[in-house]
Amino acid sequence: MSKIQMTTPLVEMDGDEMTRILWQMIKDELLLPFIDLKTEYYDLGLEHRNETDDKVTVESAEATKKYGVAVKCATITPNAARMTEYNLKEMWKSPNGTIRAILDGTVFRAPIVVKGIDPNVKSWKKPITIARHAYGDVYKNTEMVIPAAGKVELVYTSEDGKEERALVHTFNGPGVVQGQHNLNDSIESFAHSCFKYALDTKQDLWFATKDTISKKYDHTFKDVFQEIFDKEYKAAFDAAGIEYFYTLIDDAVARVMKSEGGFIWACKNYDGDVMSDMISSAFGSLAMMTSVLVSPAGYYEYEAAHGTVQRHYYKHLKGEETSTNSVATIFAWTGALRKRGELDNIPELCIFADKLEKACIKTIEDGKMTKDLALITSIEKPTVLNSRDFIIEIRKTLEAM
Ligand code: NAP
Ligand code: MG
Question: Which residue minimizes the CA distance to atom 5 of ligand 1?
């Protein structure tokens, strides 16, 4: 069998701990035997980030701008404990934060749906993808504790010195106050990413805020989305047979619980934080969740939604057996390979990505899975496999297909 040829390299961002071990196994067993894999390799493992003063992270993001598609392994975000463990020169920033700051964009997270790992919500038949705006609001707020009676005002001073004031509240006693902001640029790029991703995946897009109460702040989000949609995307949505649907956030929550799934739910920053944890836990497991950063300029960075699975890695280092689920990391690769195939017009690459995903799902549905899934499956007497054997089983399923 001849291997599938690639024309443009993928930007490969290697990572840390257990996911770094899985990364190599996935390449050896599931990719290299079938694809003449072209990647530009960046080692974002913490040791190498430290050696390069974290320049490697910036270079990998710049390479993503050059080639358009990246696949990323989970990485350690250092804290005090990691400073000593890895003898770090500095408490380097979160690689995901650095990459997001360079590429801009929106993170889309979707569960991988498998028969036998049933969502807790009975009506959900298809995945629900959360698109979370990643800038501003309560995450960049300014707060004040008001000790006693007094007046709080918002003051805007323009560059030419003009002032505009609005009364927040006249306090009769102690209380609290908070200032939030967002930027039109950021809201616009959020909107573009959502509309592009909806077209890309041919799914309806829902967006919700509380514009009836927040007549300026949330209303701006609503207006920006509607304007951009009408001007730039409506025709393409009609042609693709998909819909853009705006409603109030409380109405959206109620509808989501009764829906079948199969759409993208765009959320403001706080709503996305809260709702993505609800969606992922209701669908089963963080190890069955894909994540992709889509930039408004059309760059894509695929990864798993979970971390480096540190606890399993320490077991692995002690020579103990691990049963770590590699599905989300495999789907990061298939997402990136499929996108590369689409951009470079290599249908075999897209077909391979589809098949590998099907092989993962079939292996689990045949009752062969890692421990995290065995604990929650409705399949009777599942076979619990270790990290390597699970990947080997997926390879067997793939070869049989
Ligand atoms: P984690 O790696 O997601 O793991 C937390 C727990 O979830 C694990 O101990 C394990 O539970 C379970 N789990 C997660 N992924 C699994 C998988 N693929 N298969 C089986 N079980 C899985 O989160 P963490 O332990 O809080 O973080 C570890 C490191 O990852 C940190 O240094 C953090 O900075 C980093 N991190 C990176 C990213 C990223 O790069 N995108 C995201 C989050 C965290 P049991 O132990 O009960 O088996
Ligand atoms: Mg959260």
Answer: 309
Which residues lie near ion ligand 2 (Cβ < 5 Å)?
A: 273
Ligand that comes closest to the CA of residue 275: 2
- Report the range out of 91-105, 121-135, 222-236, 262-276 with the highest average pLDDT: 222-236
DSSP state of 382: P
Q: What's the rounded Cα separation, in Å, for the pair 2 and 20?
A: 28
* Closest ligand 1 atom, residue 74 Cα: 40
Of residues 297 and 19, which shows the higher confidence score? 19
Q: Give the pLDDT confidence score for residue 295 in this predicted structure.
A: 86
- What is the 31 CA–ligand 2 centroid distance (Å)? 33
Pocket lined around ligand 1, Cβ cut-off 6 Å = 74-77, 96, 286-287, 303, 306-311, 324-325, 372
Tell me which amino acid residue 264 is: I
> Tokens 């995945």 sit at which residue?
127
Question: 324-378 pLDDT, tens per residue?
Answer: 999 999 999 999 999 999 999 999 999 999 999 999 999 999 999 999 999 999 9
> Is the CB of residue 188 less than 8 Å from the CB of residue 295?
no
Q: What is the pLDDT of residue 105?
A: 79
Among 306, 360, 370, say which to mutate for ligand 1: greatest number of ligand atoms within 8 Å of CB.
306
Find the radius of gyration of the CA atoms of the chain.
23
**Domains of the chain, CATH where assigned:** 1-114+298-401 (3.40.718.10), 118-140+181-283 (3.40.718.10), 142-179 (no CATH)
Confidence class of residue 285 from pLDDT cuts 50, 70 and 90? confident
Ligand 2 centroid–CA 135 distance in Å is 14
Across the chain, what does the average pLDDT equal?
Answer: 95
CB atoms within 10 A of CB 89: 12
Of 398, 321, 324, 323, nearest to 363 (Cα)? Answer: 398
Nearest CA residue ID for atom 6, ligand 1:
309
- Contact between 376 and 285 (Cβ < 8 Å): yes
